[in-house]
Write a structure and sequence with these properties.
The structure is a single chain. The chain is an alpha/beta fold. The chain has a single domain, classed as Mannitol-specific EII, Chain A (3-Layer(aba) Sandwich), CATH 3.40.930.10. The protein has helices at about 5, 20-35, 40-55, 110-125, 125-135, 140-145, and strands at about 10-15, 55-60, 60-65, 65-70, 75-85, 95-105. Strands 1, 2, 3, 4, 5 and 6 form a 6-stranded mixed β-sheet that branches. The longest helix is centred in the first third of the chain and has 16 residues, at about 20-35. The chain is globular and about 35 Å long.
Length: about 150
């Protein structure tokens, strides 16, 4: 499983202008709704429910909100680079500026966990994170996220 299997060019937001975690999740749910055809509110509620279990702000300015949705046929991702880092209740209390939303079919099982592990590995690469923070161009961000050095095709 690679990032390009989860994320298409239209799933990348180069300058997400939000001031809160809730607003970020709303904007990302709206983009995910356009990509999946699933109701925006359903996606937002799913992401919010997951946050109530514990933050998906994994530290170092990174958040990986995720959830399972009925009606979704394949794993889908949405990536955003936040203009001004926001409080995401992260485990290290650092503001977040890189967010990767991962949505899985409610029947995904282990594939959901594999995809989550793949996204986590991507963001453990400090050099990659710096490159992602270095541009606001969605095409450049997509190229970085899907690059061969990142396990892309």
């Amino acid at each position: 499983m690679e990032i390009v299997d989860l994320l298409g060019p239209q799933g990348v937001i180069g300058q997400l202008k939000v001031t809160s975690k809730k607003q970020a999740l709303q904007e990302l749910a709206a983009r995910a709704a356009k990509l999946t055809g699933i109701n925006e509110r359903t996606i937002f509620d799913t992401l919010l429910e997951r946050e109530k279990l514990g933050t998906t702000g994994v530290g170092h300015g990174i958040a990986i909100p995720h959830g399972k949705l009925a009606g979704l046929t394949q794993l889908r991702g949405v990536f955003a680079r936040v203009d001004n880092p926001i409080d995401f209740d992260s485990i290290d209390e650092m503001p977040v500026d890189l967010i990767f939303v991962l949505l899985a079919p409610d029947t995904a099982g282990a594939d959901h966990l594999k995809a989550l592990a793949r996204v986590s590995r991507l963001f453990r690469d400090r050099a990659m994170c710096e490159k992602l923070r270095g541009t606001t161009d969605p095409d450049a961000l997509y190229a970085l996220l899907s690059s061969k050095t990142n396990g892309g095709h």
